[in-house]
Amino acid sequence: MSKKKKAWLGTSAVLAMSMLASACSGGNGNNAASGSPSASATATSSASASASPTASASAPAIDTSEHVKLKMVLVGPKAPDTDEVYAQVNKILTEKVNAELELRFLDWNEMNQKYPLLFAANEDFDMAFTASWAFYNPTARKDGFLELTEDLMKTYAPNTWANQDPVGWDQAKIDGKIYMVPQDAFESGSSVAMVRGDLREKYNIPELKTQEDFVNYVKTIAKNEKGIVAYNGPPTTLNGSGAPILFLDLEKRFVHGSAPLVYDMKSESPQLTNYLEDPKALAKLDMMYDMAQTGAWPKDAIVAKTDWHAAFKEGKMAADTGNILTASSTMEAMNLKHPEWKVEIYDLSPEAKRFQDPLINNGVGIHATSKHPERALMVLDLLRYDRELFELTTYGIKGKHWEPVGEDRYKVLPAGATGYPPDGVCPWGWRTELVRTLDGPAGDVLQSFYKKWKENNIIHSPLETFALDDANIKNELAALANVQKTYLLPIYFGLVKPSEGIPEVIEKMKQAGLDKVQAEMQKQLDAYVASKKAE
Amino acid sequence: MKSAFMRDFMNYKTMLLMLVPSLFFVVLFQYLPMFGLILAFKEYTYGKGILGSAWNGIENFKFFFISGDAWRVTRNTVLYNVAFIAINLVLQVSIAIMLSELKSKWFKKISQSMLFLPYFISWVVVGTIVYNLLNFEHGTINTLLRSLGFEPFNFYSDKGVWPFLLVFFSAWKAVGYGAVFYLAAIMSIDSEMFEAAETDGANVFQRIWHITIPSLKPTMIVLTLLSVGHIFRGDFGLFYNMIGNNGLLFGTTDVIDTFVYRSLVENNEIGMSAAIGFYQSILCFATILLVNGIVRRADKDSALF
């Protein structure tokens, strides 16, 4: 090895280090901003009047003579029968708007990394699932989605424009502009508890009514029932509260998952407070600490890679918590396989007021650089309001994967459970009132909770549609996210005593700029409330 | 002058031709992406692209320093890397020497393969294996301790043991791979020297000490200098898969890369990640200049440049 060659090797090693910084800088040079890609399209009101089902009387005829393939990005696993289902979907779409869909799935474990990269690398796709929990805000703020103007919507998705609950558009607004078509169906993701009825009876525990009852159930199982994990406790990443089910009755709401700042849901002019300074919230953390000491979850659960929801389904865990939709489908699946476990679902804070889930909890955005945004909107309009397409994409093939029960309910067929889980292959982005409810006890539970919540618990606040602009506090939010995961998460897991750990957490958060974040958020909240009052 | 260059060029044209693919590789994957570093000083948006996005000064670097942990994670990163470099060097050289002294060809091949094997196991898998060895309830080690009547030990809440565990697993994974370099270097030592030494009555240790190790010195220096070039980069795979989100252990196990990952995984600010990449590059660059300078002063021939 000559000296020169060695020198060259060494230099290149140094240079290699600068790679990380720019690994994702692929061909993204000069995209035009998301100005008006549809200008030309709107102008083409030409002779070829295709029989577009979306064309209402006032809309100009739309030229669909060119057959286009639209690429759509969905999240979650791709079910085995997806291609079969979408072959049928494409047949109908070709007939109606001369287009077909090509799907690309980002599975849960890769979604966080890959979703933003699809936009950064400006990959070729036309539409993507998006949601308030799936990068809607940051992607829209970085011009990843096409702005959906009223003109555009009226022309190419008239049914959507006519039927969508306007609250959805309000929620989707980022600096006054809309970048996604939100879903349009009632949902409330309130946390509920699932427990095993057989174990509850075995230890003579009465039906659960309160959080204390739940904690008691968990502790009893932890002490007496060997070979089963009582409860998984908090998640291993922290975003907002680590135990939403226990915090429900505080009736507080987070502005951003990285900061511990909450406001009172019922307040007309909300003031931000740090929940870690609220004695009621600290009592909840003590409750968690107490559970951890009785061995409710494994000592090293904080590093466990177990899929706890699956563990509950398989009978390896005695209690689980989650939103009511997931809970009811879990119950359905478990009742089919193990009716003797007598799964029960409880709302532990029946009096607590709660928000309806924002409609932007699910939705579809059009890629800013899509070549066929008009056709994508037409397809989306069909997916939302064409009953056949909606049911195909949501439930699969009728008679194979599911069958209808009456007007608004459905039953899962055996092939559906594995081949195309109903409502499981990411059809959430175009959910509308065509949605059916699961038939049977699980569906009944869901309906009864929804009914009760709608009547007693759901409240509305002017802040429902507020979207934080993090431009001035990005650094502080990043630092706070880190502090939460480093110092707060171990407290949730009961590894550090709350009374000892919390002062350190608060100190670290102050250092990371909590006060600045609070001031900025409060300023934006106040301005938003004022603007709402002015309307 | 020019003619000399041309003469060299003609003399080495085959060699130079062989250099072309790797030159191409370096330009394509290392020089070209370097221009992406400007992202560290920009507020990146998809619509405006790399060149069009607005400049925002040193805004992207702030999150790293305001948390107060920048010093801690930088220190951890360097200390771990120093430990990895030193321990792996000693182990790799000694294993290479041992392997070279083995007489049985069959045994030599088997042990070399066994040592090499861990290199191919991904850190994700290693992380799971380690968890199954060490976890409190069902881990192999704790089950063994319990059955022997000892108190089980909760590894995942004791930050003192992790520096040792991390160094151990890093060595376990890297030793076989590194030893190959030294083994190759040993093979290229002129065998006449060994024969001469033997004739002069040198025993095996004297031969190793006076011939093998001095002959390995240039290789050791080059490989060490190359790893020093990465001294401010934590091995994300190693640290993230072994420690995960366990804040209790971060005091002794948090490195720059895991810290940045935790801060940025939710907000996807490419500019901020670029900023930290830039910070690490600058520090690495300074370190390698410094170390190379020291080496050059001590032994001019061994320096990289």
How is the secondary structure organized here?
The complex is a heterodimer of chains A (535) and B (305).
Chain A: H1 3-16, H2 19-22, H3 39-43, E1 68-75, H4 82-97, E2 99-106, H5 108-120, E3 127-130, H6 136-141, H7 150-156, H8 158-163, H9 166-172, E4 173-174, E5 177-178, E6 180-182, E7 191-196, H10 197-202, H11 211-224, E8 229-231, H12 244-247, E9 252-254, E10 261-264, E11 273-274, H13 279-293, H14 308-313, E12 317-323, H15 324-337, E13 343-346, E14 363-366, H16 373-385, H17 387-395, E15 402-405, E16 409-412, H18 414-419, E17 437-438, H19 441-457, H20 474-492, H21 498-511, H22 514-534
Helix pairs in contact in A: 15-19, 16-17, 20-21
Chain B: H1 2-11, H2 13-31, E1 42-43, H3 49-52, E2 54-55, H4 62-66, H5 70-101, H6 105-116, H7 123-134, H8 140-147, H9 162-187, H10 191-199, H11 204-228, H12 236-243, H13 250-253, H14 256-264, H15 270-298
Antiparallel strand pairs in B: 1-2
Helix pairs in contact in B: 5-9, 5-11, 6-9, 7-12, 9-11, 11-15
Report on this structure:
The complex is a heterodimer of chains A (535) and B (305). Chain A is built from 22 helices and 17 strands. Chain A is of the alpha/beta class. Chain A has two domains: 64-188 and 358-435, D-Maltodextrin-Binding Protein, domain 2 (3-Layer(aba) Sandwich); 191-356 and 463-534, D-Maltodextrin-Binding Protein, domain 2 (3-Layer(aba) Sandwich). In chain A, the strands form five sheets. Chain A has a five-stranded mixed sheet. Chain A has a four-stranded mixed sheet with strand order 8-12-7-13. A three-stranded antiparallel sheet of chain A has the order 9-10-11, with no helix packed on it. In chain A, helix 15 runs antiparallel to helix 19, helix 16 crosses helix 17 and helix 20 (474-492) runs antiparallel to helix 21. Residues 1-59 of chain A have low confidence and may be disordered. Chain B folds into two domains: 1-57, no CATH class; 67-302, MetI-like (MetI-like fold, Orthogonal Bundle), CATH 1.10.3720.10. Chain B has 305 residues and is mainly alpha-helical. In chain B, helix 11 crosses helix 15 (270-298). Chain B has helices at 2-11, 13-31, 49-52, 62-66, 70-101, 105-116, 123-134, 140-147, 162-187, 191-199, 204-228, 236-243, 250-253, 256-264, 270-298, and strands spanning 42-43, 54-55. A two-stranded antiparallel sheet of chain B has the order 1-2. At the A-B interface, helix 1, helix 2, helix 5, helix 6 and helix 20 of A face helix 2, helix 3, helix 4, helix 11 and helix 14 of B.
